[in-house]
Amino acid sequence: MAKDELSEFHLVGTRPLRPDGLDKVTGRARYGADVSMPGMLWGAVVRSPHAHARIVRIDASKAEALPGVKAVVTRADFPEGLTGENWNLQENTMAGERALYDGHAVAAVAATSALRAQEAARLIEVEYEVLPHVIDVDDAIRPDAPVIREGAADATVPEGSPPNVARYIEFGHGDTEAGFAKADLVRARSYKTEATHQGYIEPHACLGQLGADGKGEMWVCTQGQWFIRQMCSSVLGLEAAQLRVTPSEIGGGFGGKTTIFMEPLSLALSRKAGGRPVKIVMTRSEVLRATGPTASASMDVKIGMTKDGMITAADAEFRMQGGAFPGAPVDMALYCAFAPYKLPASRHVGYDVLANRPKCAAYRAPGSPMGAFAVESLIDEMCRELGLDPLDVRLKNAVKEGDRASYGPTFGSIGLVETLEAVKSHPNLELPLGPNQGRGIASGYWFNHSGETSVSLAISEDGTVQVSVGTPDIGGSRASIALMTAETLGIAYEDVRVNVVETGALGVNEPTHGSRATFASGKAAVIAARRAIAEMCRRAAAEWGIDAEAVEWANGAAQPAGPNAGKFPPMGIEEIAAKMGSTGGPISGHHESVPEGVGASFGCHVVDVEVDPETGRTTILRYLVVQDAGRAIHPSYVEGQFQGGAAQGIGWALNEAYVYGQDGRLQNAVFLDYRVPVASDLPMIDTQIVEVPNPGHPFGVRGVGETGITPPLPAIANAIEAAAGVRMRSLPMSPPKVLAAIKAAREG
Amino acid sequence: MSKIHVTTTVNGDEVEFLADPRESLLDCLRDHLGLTGSKEGCGTGDCGACSVTLDGTLVCSCLVLGVEAEGRRVATIEGMAEGNALHPLQRKFLEHAALQCGFCTPGILVAAKALLEKNPDPTETEVRYWLAGNLCRCTGYDKIIRAVLDAAAEMRQEAA
Description:
CATH class of the largest domain in chain A: Alpha Beta
Largest interface: A-B, 60 and 61 residues
Distance between the termini of chain B: 54 Å
Largest sheet of chain B: 5 strands, mixed
Structural class of chain B: alpha+beta
Oligomer: heterodimer
Radius of gyration of chain A: 27 Å
């Protein structure tokens, strides 16, 4: 029955059409803003135009007098006394005493139409007392910076630290000074990365309803319906089980839809409007100003290397701002930065700094791209100086199974060496380059994640199978879970329907985040299927009058385990299902746990660029992603994750950045100015899937979603140096910055 | 503001609705006609998720007023398949796994159809530039471009 040992699969590794595909090519799929309800009102949010201001007075009387306006809410409508992250979420949802960033919500209104709600929002008068603000992380960490919040520092922060340091982290091992002394070359460099936005094309949208009895419902585009339930309940003081949250189809998330923004506002408005449902759909400008961008980073890295390319020691100090709240992923940035390397000695220091910007949210491998930009750039620079092949140096220092990771734990089965070897033998490395062209490589890492998971599977009367999962399908996970379930049961892919269900239908599930859906929901679905198989074997055994242990499951049917078990023809799933009502009732399988056995994923990218010496513009000529998937359940969607991650990384490297004015206001809050890569910016993105199976998953899955955004930042910087002879140490590597670097180099 | 009565043709059907003169064609399609296949990703004509054709011309329906549809022909994603028979582009998008979240997909399909009506044999570069007004954040465009080129090849074969 166990599939773990099988080397050949019928379905795993094939590329069937995705089950939700037809709805998504015909416009039928229902996303966050696509659903309306009888009696529905529309909500609009009033947002601070200031980066930092005391809210002196809010006067909603003119708005309330407008016909069709049914409710106005401010912070006064939320419960008091919250602490920790719950307070942070509430404060970010609706400003209290002060607006902490441009775009911070200060009031919200519900009316009978969207236009009426917008009109009413404009009539709400807010008097501000503008306060000094700070945007850049290096400015925010200064001892004399404007203070975002008194007492924000947690217990990790050493006494005497600057006032905006909210968290401090330090770890390491070995004697770094001795390590640097052994090196033939020691280099220390500083790097900066800008905040970028996840840039999902679907703006946040929700439709919330809450009665005076505390019972409510919500339809919302989210990566995690239970997170929405828990966070809304905390912020509004509700009982979690009284709020049912149904996830819509989701138009991209990349980590940015794992938290709340305006969802509690729709519930608060609904409660105040007599329980009428309230729909809120953000504009793009609201998405960019007020929902989670990444942190921005300022990083110092020092590495020692022998002349034959062995790393002797490493030192990193990272400062990251994640907006006006603690939570910049400086810890994860440090954990990932040196993960591909076996380090004899290391020291890592990190500061999580507050600034007058929106609260950062997770974005694909949070923190990892920043750290990789610094470390992978410096390693490339040192290889160049020592005349070493950067791929060989990466292989020489590569971590293997059993090695201690730079951040502490011991690696289980990992595929970094296999990934680097696959790059080494890839034909793209042999292709010739022309003038002003250069090739760059870089590695990347993500831990992958498991998390609370609950899956139920039920056999239908005709032997087809429904699987209820709690992880929204953001890029083909219904297909991969159906493939694994059908493979386990020995039935057709088309005979399994995977449903993403609401919070009332299962126990708590973490969101689709951390590259976990195919790993965790997939593993739980396989275990649930095995439980259903065991029950079906019992039903057959009872009918045949033999022991259940004498029955085995193969090819979708129960059969006697051997000649001693008796001679009976196989009893198929349809036959067992058809009689289940008279043989003991419904047959189902269920599994809930925090699945163990997460497998980390390493990747390595190779990019060829051309840099125009007249304009500084970088063109991506060719791009290769090689990454360890463990096992590709549906290879097309694995390739899709590789390509999508690479494209986002390319945007971060070359174009994307939050641009603030002197007044602390975001200047590029539309897609025209916040420029994500378009089709004409990119070439085809070549992929090679490496499969070093993860022993912790029945089919070897690791999780593939996040690693791919990490290598493009340094790989492109490395390629630009190869092409143009300039080393870019701050992002984005936009034409004016590259041109300035080229000119400076010429003028020497 | 008082509403204006609009009579227009959507996907071959004559329809009527009352539009506030400030409402975009996208708002009217979605909120008055229940055609939610066209999406709003930006509202400023930068993302292409709201792409429809107006008298055969590709437009961002977020940049057209609803009242401008009076007496015109509008075609949306909901009219792309004929009954259950998918347009070759829709089939190829599924076969090539050219969508992940699927939110940009309706607009890209409408835009790609308009391209192939003008240019049945586009190069990869021509497809990339034509679709440069349609943002996709999930796929890196690779599989989208392949699907469009494959659909074009199949449609040329059928036409021959």
